[in-house]
Design goal:
Layout: H1 3-64, H2 69-85, H3 90-112, H4 115-118, H5 121-156, H6 160-167, H7 180-184
Helix pairs in contact: 1-2, 1-3, 1-5, 1-6, 2-3
């Protein structure tokens, strides 16, 4: 083979390798992006499921503790805030989640003051469903954050970062608890 043919073949080989690299990187980024979107969808489904349980739980507790009106209003407002926040991304949802968890603890603290309520089959069933849903929310968060970690890693790594930037792929935000201190301290209930 003459030197021009060898040079031409080398150029074609390099172009093909670059094309394959772009193709593989793009498809990898698309796959990770879709996985993160799917995981976020799972979180919103579980938050909606939990929000649908709350009115039944409130009604059950109201039957025993009708004078705890402020707690019921706070839980209802926090429930609505979580549902609204899912439209604004992980950071807004995490903030609303913190508030909701705090108000939900208050509701359960009220329930603790009423032994006949704790013994109610309906209350126990709702509480079990809520615990199951909370477990699913935690699993969904882990799946989402794992997907975000993988996507962010791929978007930041060289030379992927060059391709990701050109194609408009961006880092995604984690779904993190904003204020660990507020979750770790117990709820105060005064009668």
């Amino acid at each position: 083979m003459d030197p021009i043919t060898i040079a031409l073949l080398a150029i074609v080989a390099v172009v093909v390798l670059i094309g394959v690299f772009f193709w593989a990187t793009y498809n990898g980024l698309v796959k990770l992006n879709i996985r993160v979107d799917e995981a976020w969808s799972d979180i919103t489904v579980q938050l909606k499921r939990r929000a649908d349980l709350i009115p039944n739980l409130i009604e059950t507790v109201k039957g025993y503790a009708a004078h705890e009106k402020q707690v019921f209003e706070d839980v209802t407002k926090a429930r609505t805030a979580v549902l609204d926040a899912t439209q604004h991304g992980p950071a807004a949802t995490a903030k609303a989640e913190n508030q909701f968890e705090s108000t939900l603890k208050s509701l359960f603290a009220v329930a603790e003051a009423y032994p006949q309520l704790r013994a109610s089959e309906n209350f126990q069933q709702l509480q079990a469903e809520l615990v199951d849903t909370e477990d699913k929310i935690q699993a969904s968060r882990r799946f989402y954050n794992g997907g975000v970690r993988d996507l962010n890693t791929k978007v930041k790594m060289f030379p992927n970062n060059l391709i990701a930037g050109m194609l408009g792929f961006k880092e995604r935000e984690f779904f993190e608890v904003e204020d660990m201190a507020s979750i770790e301290k117990p709820v105060e209930v005064k009668f």
